[in-house]
Amino acid sequence: MAARESPSDRCAGMTAFSRPPTVCENMNHRRANSPVAHCPQCGAVVNRNLPRRLCTDAEHAVSRRQGSTYCVGCGVQLIVGRP
Ligand SMILES: [Zn+2]
Ligand SMILES: [Zn+2]
Fold first, then answer.
1. DSSP 8-state assignment for residue 77
2. Does residue 11 fall inside a structural domain?
3. Residue 19 has what pLDDT?
4. Range(s) of the domain holding residue 52
5. 19, 38, 42, 62: which one has the fewest Cβ atoms less than 10 Å from its Cβ?
6. Which residues pair with 38 in a beta bridge?
7. pLDDT at position 60
8. What is the Å distance from ligand 2's center to 52 Cα?
């Protein structure tokens, strides 16, 4: 009864972050302490310790020009509906 749950099994589960539905290769997912709150590629929260930011349209315009699909500050989708 002591060997029901081996420590190695538990560790294997800890190495992988909870996977989003879309496979995202963005490096922010792998960082323990990401400088941004949201992933620019999928919009998922990568650092929940950062305070929620209220962005301006100007900031979103800059992010969009830099190729971010999602805002790293608030997670809103910037580029919508790629054909
Ligand atoms: Zn992502
Ligand atoms: Zn934003």
1. B
2. no
3. 52
4. 29-83
5. 19
6. 45
7. 97
8. 9
User: Is the separation of the CB atoms in 43 and 70 below 8 Å?
Assistant: yes
In a domain, 35, yes or no: yes
**Centroid of ligand 2 to alpha carbon of 73 (angstroms):** 5
Q: How far is the CA of 19 from the centre of ligand 2 (A)?
A: 23
Picking from 72, 66, 69, the residue whose alpha carbon sits closest to that of residue 50 is 72
Nearest C-alpha neighbor of 24 from the set 3, 7, 6, 38: 38
Is-contact 38 46, C-beta < 8 A?
Answer: yes
- Where the chain has pLDDT below 70, the residues are 1-22, 82-83
With respect to residue 44, please indicate whether it lies within any of the assigned structural domains: yes
Prediction pTM value: 0.68
What's the number of domains the chain is made of?
1
